[in-house]
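Hey, does this match?
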Amino acid sequence: MDSKAAFLLLLCGLASLSVEAKGPFSSVNSGELGDYIVEYGADYRTVALASQTGNFQLVFFNTTPNAFAVAVRMGNFNRAETMRFVWTANRNDLVGDNATLSFASDGNLVLADADGRLVWSTNTSNKGAVGIELRNDGNLVLYDASNRSVWQSFDHPTDTLLVGQSLGIGGVSKLVSRLSDRDGSEGPYTLVMEAGGLALYFNGVPYWTLSFYASELKDLFSITHTCKRAVATITFLSDPDAENGYRQMLEMRLGNSTAPPERRAAALCNLTSDGISTALYSFTTPRFSTTLSFVRLDSDGNLRMYTYSPQIEYNTWDITYERFKCGGTGIYGCGLPRKCGSFGLCEKSQCVACPQPGGLLGWSDQCSPPVLPNCGTTPASHVDFYEVVGAEHFSSKYAAAIGNVKMEECRRRCLGDCKCAAFFYWEESSKCFLTQSLDTLQQLGNTKHLAFIKTQTKM
């Protein structure tokens, strides 16, 4: 293709992109769907709003017929099949064909279904917003006559942070995963900004932490407590580094507000200076530009960083960081709560066994935990435990432990709680852990770490 033809093709692409909608506009979810099946196997229709670079675009998209979300997608406009969804307006309340997204003269951005039902809005009526813009960093912004932000999507993250986007701004302190790749409603995994750091939870149970004070601090107490000031923002950064290419980082910054007394722990004050207010955690250093990057809490509970790499022909998104990476030794993929479904023993990222009263059986996706005895109706004489040597719960390193107790006391506590599904005991430290759900157990080879699974005996 000669340079003139390439230039004309570029102009044609930009014309169809409809870069900006500065003032009031209305877009109806109707007409032909996009030419490509895109991320999550979705169909899409474009809205007349995109960034000037063409790397971000507003669309209606669906993974099931007639159930659409409004979203910002990211990537290369000329390769629509590779674009990724990085923000969603109405993930828990989808709309159908002929729904309307409109920015009215009163300054409110509104999504209404075909029957007129109000589904979602920015709640910015009569607050001075005069224009709307999708900026080159992926931020959807309503702005006033002085070009100041009245509302922005960066203040309302869903499962993703873009470069420069923060938790804590606008009061949103967590990311929530999709329920599945096909279902974009809120799932069971959350990435939460706590008083002293960052934590991953599965249905409220922790399975990974990152402390502001010290990398070796893992227990949830150290993350949910702080010295004096609490963590106020956590920002995803991707900056050039003269020696290592680019650095992808999370920046934790303490706020000026005083943490409440119940969230203070004097022991943490010994781990940092009063003058320290920022902590940087570098995760990876790709050798190519990471300007188009995002960090996402995926539907499997894994925290991943993605970077657009135009040099790659087939899959232009490179996973530059993966918290629970399969392969190798140690925990790796076994750290994911549902790696083995509702129950299973995981070793070196593989589900290797289904623990049963008679021993370890071969694992399959049919492996399930024992049915718990009925609360209040099953006598204690018909409740028992079977042992799995060297097994740990995915949350054992992070959840609060009952310290300095004997194994029999640990057993008694689980026996006395009808919702307790198992107890875990560390012989070398006399620590006891109780859990109400089993999910994935980790086989780490420490024979002093014991799991006891509750089961009902025949009556």
